[in-house]
Write a structure and sequence with these properties.
The chain has 286 residues and is α/β, with parallel strands linked by helices. It has 10 helices and 11 strands. The protein folds into 2 domains: 2-70; 80-283, Vaccinia Virus protein VP39 (Rossmann fold), CATH 3.40.50.150. Helices cover 37% and strands 21% of the residues.
């Protein structure tokens, strides 16, 4: 048996050598792997560096590393990932939740009181993290999550059960196609596919594990964004709000398209790196 400290260094060296990440990234991933393999919180590793790891745990860590050096993302290896302080079930049928998407939650919480009675739609929900997170923050609201992929919805439904939320429903739909015409929402949120098929980032081996139809969109990444902007007014209450996550270079074009359509009060929101990642707008009163 060897110590926690020994295995942490071993994991870091393996990651740096095989997937060419820097020292800091290797340290972060090594802690993730140890926390998952040993089922211990971060605080455990502060004072237990000399604690020995048994043979079964060593073998488990090695099995994780074998997958990781093939560039399989940790989220899929673990079948779980954290979003906004909560842990969600995950598999390869849905995208890995990104920290960037937490900006949407921040914006909603800033704008609406927790006692609000809203009708909220999480459009293209994937694993359901946006809708489920908001269902907890807004217990008096009704949340609908939808996705074109039945497999992604299966992941989302598992997360609904995992988090024991009851003010939420799921619907299989290609954007708005399966919604009733008179079904109106106060707030529609979406993180649609927005990567161009020619984007160099798609050469990243780790992205190859994620569902491409949830990443890539036609028209240089704008096809789904524009379709949502075109159709959303039919499903928004008067002055209802549409909020779209997009790439950090797409903000200008997204804003211009909003201006051409049935929206006003257009606002753009920056992430922690001061890049515009979300654009929101209100439906124009009829």
């Amino acid at each position: 048996m060897s110590s926690v400290s020994f295995h942490k260094k071993r994991i870091e060296e393996c990651l740096r050598k095989n997937i060419q990440i820097n020292e800091r990234e290797a340290q972060i991933e090594a802690e993730y792997i140890l926390r998952f393999a040993l089922k211990k919180p971060s605080s455990f590793f502060i004072s237990n560096q000399k604690t020995n790891i048994d043979k079964i745990q060593e073998e488990f860590i090695s099995s994780i590393l074998k997958k990781r050096i093939k560039r399989e993302p940790l989220a899929y290896i673990f079948n779980e990932w954290d979003f906004y302080g909560e842990t969600f079930y995950l598999d390869k049928n849905s995208l890995i939740p990104r920290q960037d998407t937490e900006l949407i939650i921040d914006l909603v919480i800033k704008q609406f009181d927790k006692e609000s009675k809203l009708n909220i739609l999480d459009l293209g929900t994937g694993s359901g993290v946006i809708g489920i997170t908001l269902s907890k923050f807004y217990p008096n609201s009704i949340i609908t999550i939808s996705d074109i992929s039945s497999k992604a919805l299966n992941v989302a439904n598992k997360n609904i059960k995992k988090h024991n939320v009851t003010n939420i429903r799921s619907l299989e739909s290609d954007w708005f196609d399966n919604f009733k015409e008179k079904e109106l929402f106060d707030l529609i949120l979406t993180n649609p596919p927005y990567i161009s098929k020619n984007d160099v980032h798609l050469n990243n081996l780790e992205l190859g594990y994620e569902p491409s139809n949830a990443l890539v969109a036609a028209n240089d990444g704008f096809a789904d964004i524009f379709k949502i902007i075109d159709t959303a007014p039919k499903f928004l209450n008067s002055e209802g709000l549409l909020m779209i996550e997009h790439g950090h270079t797409q903000g200008h074009k997204v804003k211009n398209y909003f201006q051409q359509k049935s929206f006003d009060n257009i606002k753009q929101h920056r992430d922690i790196n001061q890049k515009i990642r979300v654009t929101s707008a209100s439906k124009i009163k009829v």
